[in-house]
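Sequence in, structure out.
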Amino acid sequence: MRSGAPVITAPAPARPAPDSWELSREPTPSSVRVRVSGFKHLLVPALAAACLADRPWLISNVPDIADTRVLTALLGRAGAAVTHDRQEGTVRVLAGELRQHRIPDDLSGQVHGAVYLLPALLASTGRVVSGRHGGCRIGSGGSGERPLAHVAAVMERFGARCETTEGSFSATTTASGLRGAVVDLADFAVREPVTGTLTGPHYSGATKTALLLGAVARGTTVLREPYPKADVLELARALGTAGVPLRIGPDEIVIEGRGGPVGGTELALPSDLMEVVTMIALSVCLDTESRLGLDRPDAVRAGLAPELACLEAMGIPLAWEGDILRTGRVERIAAVDMVAASHLVYSDALALLVPMLLRASGPSVVTDLVWGSRFGYAEGLRALGADLAVSGSRMTVRPSVLSPAAGDLRAGDLRAVMSLVIGALTAGGRHVVHGVRHLARGYDNLPDKLRLFGAGIRE
């Protein structure tokens, strides 16, 4: 059982998190044991899927993060009965008759995950209206806004009528409701040059939108070349356990929609994939052995297959022992080139892997073919002494010894801030890191976990 606040039955929005930490490094323990929290990128669309059901969804191993608190508050405002038990790490959702089709800006502006309520509320109420959405500003908009046009385009394949303008979104269904569709997800992606597979910033969102709509549309839906990573596959399997007839093949997902709500289910989230990578990076960079306690380790291992292959090539000693993943001390790190793409390494993971590559025996090249030049941590790591050269979507990482920076460190997205935290702790000394409010969206109880590694944190 978790320690923390009592059961929440009337969800409330998250309180603003502090935006800066003063970090110092205390003596690092020789060994650390950490329990990794649940998988955020599955939780978010699973909460949306619960809106499609006429019976309860019970989700366990739920991380206590800003996304959980904001999204459960949104569901409560829409009319769902929501119980978030922070002690047990569970969320129970009974959608019933959702009455609210408008997603309020004061909540959606805090997280990106509210985007997945767009198809859910459209399917449940026949209409959805939304304004701005928050999250990391890594999109193509003038201020880093992430697009919604691909969500509208997928909805239109199912017969919806949509309008999108800068800062607003609306969609309605026809009198006959949503109909099954053939959606080729290649229309929402590009071919990456390394393996010829699909990638891009719209690919994941388009697939999840189509999967949610297909589950309740009338008739057959075929998703061709869907986004292949764990969050989509696990979401599809959860819908299957909720009574949605579907087949998951190597290149397509076929859904036999019945034109009505899905049933109830119980979903145990695997451990968060990016938190696993984060803890490995802390272990390696701080020369500390670690034992990571995992939920559903087989799902974690499958979901992180590209990252684990890179870590093996680097020479990071990892050992799987039941529900424990051990990271041993590293003698030498080999230089590797790695590519973030939808069939390869997660874009999120690059920022966490780069601090380890600074210890490599030679230069490495990392390429981001999802979000392009997503290197918001480069300037901060350079201030700590990292030798990094950015050219478009590629960054060359040369061996570097980190040392205390002269000034404060700043980053504007979740993984970039975490990269600077790892870098600051590696360098030693005292650092003020700005932008840490983003960490509350992706990590449960992160300060206490960092303290296990010898971090001193003052907000």
